[in-house]
Amino acid sequence: MSNHAYESAAALRPHGCAPTELAVLAERFSLTPAPGDEQAASSLSVHGVSVDSSDTAPGELFVALPGFRRHGAEFTAEAVAAGAVAVLTDADGVATVGRQAPGTPVLTHPDPRAVVGPLAAEVYHHPSRQLVTTAVTGTNGKTTTSYFLDAILTAHLGGCIVAGTVELRVGALSVESPRTTVEAPVLQRMMALAVEEGVGAASLEASSHAIVLHRLDGTVFDVVGFTNLQRDHLDFHETMQGYLDAKAQLFTPEHTRHAVICVDDEWGAQLAHRTREAGLVPVDRVRAYPVEGDLAEGTDWWVTDATVSMTDAATTFVLHGPGGEHIEASCPLPGLVNVQNAALALVMARRAGVGADTAVEALAHAHNVPGRMQRISQRDGVRGTCIVDFAHTPDAMDLTLRAVRQITPGRLIVVFGSDGDRDQGKRPMLGEVTARLADLLVVTDENPRSEDPQLIRNAVLEGVRRVRPDLDGVEEITTWRGDAVRRGVELCGPEDTVIVTGKGHEPFLEMADEFIRYNDAPVMREAVEAKWGPLA
Ligand SMILES: CC(=O)N[C@H]1[C@@H](OP(=O)(O)OP(=O)(O)OC[C@H]2O[C@@H](n3ccc(=O)[nH]c3=O)[C@H](O)[C@@H]2O)O[C@H](CO)[C@@H](O)[C@@H]1O[C@H](C)C(=O)N[C@@H](C)C(=O)N[C@H](CCC(=O)O)C(=O)O
Ligand SMILES: Nc1ncnc2c1ncn2[C@@H]1O[C@H](COP(=O)(O)OP(=O)(O)OP(=O)(O)O)[C@@H](O)[C@H]1O
User: Fold this and answer.
1) Which of the residues bear the PTM N6-carboxylysine (predicted)?
2) pTM of the entire structure?
3) Residue owning the nearest CA to atom 23 of ligand 2
4) Which of 52, 87, 171, 221 is the most exposed place for a label (fewest CB within 10 A)?
């Protein structure tokens, strides 16, 4: 999928990137021409940068990075065939590059990953300096918050690029994203294209991997935001403290001019404290969740009066800020977690220079975060509420179902399954939590991958049985996920809500090592229209 996605991202290049002399790059980033390549290197210019052979265009510098599994140097022949005119690598890569592409000028640096971000920014002429830029990090809520910011910044400046888990989007062009935060050259190119097309802002998701692997180097954001920190990615960061330390690197002057940090959990409070102590980046602390006692203590912004509306599934709240700022806002997604996302987006927008009225109005209409509490149909007396969501861990399922219960006068119907080739322990846990919180369950496949789908469903049902030994109100669909989504809609009455969880925006179903094109939203939409007639 990675190469496929990079192929689609190929279109996200500026049309007229003025050339940069290699000699200038060599001087600025302390790159050393390989012996014999001094002359060639000093006379060449490049029009772009890439770190992946499948993502290289004519006239570009191919940066052959040492990877976790392979050395990028092994792909030099492919990169040169795609048009690379020079290669930057480390000492370990030089010999391989020489063998793969004799005659192609080579430059070296002891740690090419550490320079590729600033180097790409230089080659694409520092596009971030011409945009209003925001980045959101944290374990949960990055995608949702970044889409709220997209809506707000678009209202403020007429356009915004989006780079995150769901898509890479510049203007009308949107492609599937290979990961949460793309490699630095892809990001710099997208921003250069945005500048060319007059799109004035950028809303990004920043993963901790990206921060550690220097994918964001070369960009100083106007505002970065932190949602929360929960247990995740410990295979990469080893400890929660290591995970926070990785995120903390984004809250430094090298990466941002302003920090907005949710202090609802101990990790956010620690990050805010550290950033304030360092005194290098101004910090706004945001508290979205209710606390006992003095609401303003230890924070700069706080939320009161969060109320969920049954009719339009919106959540209203009041955000209080410095100097008596009082913002009455409405977030189009249910649940307190989305109040956190919305409050963070509002404060980030204020610090990015957006007026409160513009921000509030845009946020209220930011409905369609793909696959995140995405409403396909809305309760209207005839139709029930039909939702696509991404919750795929027991904790997320718990939060999601509690939020949806608040907007459901009738029965709550959940269509769900669990992943193959991933954490097996969570399967019965997902079954158990869903059996506890929902009325009707339709158990189906998610991404079975190389596993037998029946065994995965059995594990989910084992958890369901802990709560409902006789499987009362539980159906199992063994044919195809789309059939389960249709069955969920079939069961849904006007007072009910049906939610399909686990795959969100994902455009593929991974089965028996194949990527089969499949997305829950259009299937649910079709089922809704077949049952209740065309949607507007
Ligand atoms: C741990 C990690 O981040 N690994 C990334 C790393 O892979 P790697 O070091 O193993 O690369 P490799 O396969 O050894 O290849 C070495 C070099 O050869 C290049 N190459 C490789 C193959 C080829 O055909 N041509 C080519 O030029 C690669 O671009 C790379 O530069 O460099 C690759 C190239 O950029 C990334 O694709 C790869 O991300 C992998 C796919 C990945 O799964 N990353 C995850 C962990 C990740 O980054 N996740 C975060 C957070 C997700 C979250 O928050 O949930 C994200 O931002 O998505
Ligand atoms: N602020 C939040 N706190 C806790 N959970 C949240 C929050 N926002 C969203 N969630 C839950 O996490 C799921 C993923 O949300 P979202 O995609 O916005 O987060 P993310 O950080 O981008 O995660 P991912 O990288 O997995 O996409 C949602 O379906 C919801 O269940």
Assistant:
1) 247
2) 0.91
3) 140
4) 171
